[in-house]
Amino acid sequence: MDYHLFMSNVNLKDISMHLISIPAFQDNYIWLLTNGQDINVVVDPGEAGPVIDLLDKKSIAPSAILLTHHHNDHTGGVAALCERYPGIEVYGPQETQSKGATKIVKEGDKIDLASLSFQVIEVPGHTLGHVAYYCAPYLFCGDTLFSAGCGRIFEGTAKQMYESIEKLAALADDTIVCCAHEYTLSNLRFAHHILPEDSEIETYVKQIEQLRSEGQPSVPTTLEKEKKINLFLRCHQSDLQRKLGFNTTTMATWQVFERLRALKDSY
Ligand SMILES: [Zn+2]
Q: Is 143 annotated to bind ligand?
């Protein structure tokens, strides 16, 4: 099992939490937030096998499952996990009820798991019911925000998606962004293609190329980093607007986002 442990020194309410990414399928990450004992939160288990392997190895059982949206690569392992760990609660938006969610969540809900509290943030766009979970400093954002990119707009509108990622961008700069896919390098190459003169992006491409060549994951990331290298969070900047052909006085920022997203879709 080639999983990665991060930030083992983050203390939440005096509990030492570990964040672990569990690779699944080609490029998915299932996240486990754990204190190594009774708090073991699994986010978006697209498949059960790698999760069960890891939990067995650590001799722990999941205390809850959180689902961000209905896609199978985020929910496909729910049934097998519920069979293996009977009675486990599965939190998710309405659209995940048919995928096994037992507790339906919506904007503003607080999920209290032992002494941790997860805030539910609705972020429609990739899917209409998509939610993110925020337990400072951790943000589990599914397919909304990726490192150097954002999710495709399958069900919502560009305006909705833009408002969703801006909602996430308003969280604290030290937020640890737990994305559900390893898309960073291709996102960065697109960003470098759009803004070749941006030295921060150019440097980060090289860093991530090195990291990936060593088999290391590029996530989690932080909001502070993303505000520098993620063009989808920089739609308000005039250099990017000009690059995309906008007269800076005539459009809404979400339209800049829409054009950038369309360019990425066909890149
Ligand atoms: Zn998805």
A: yes
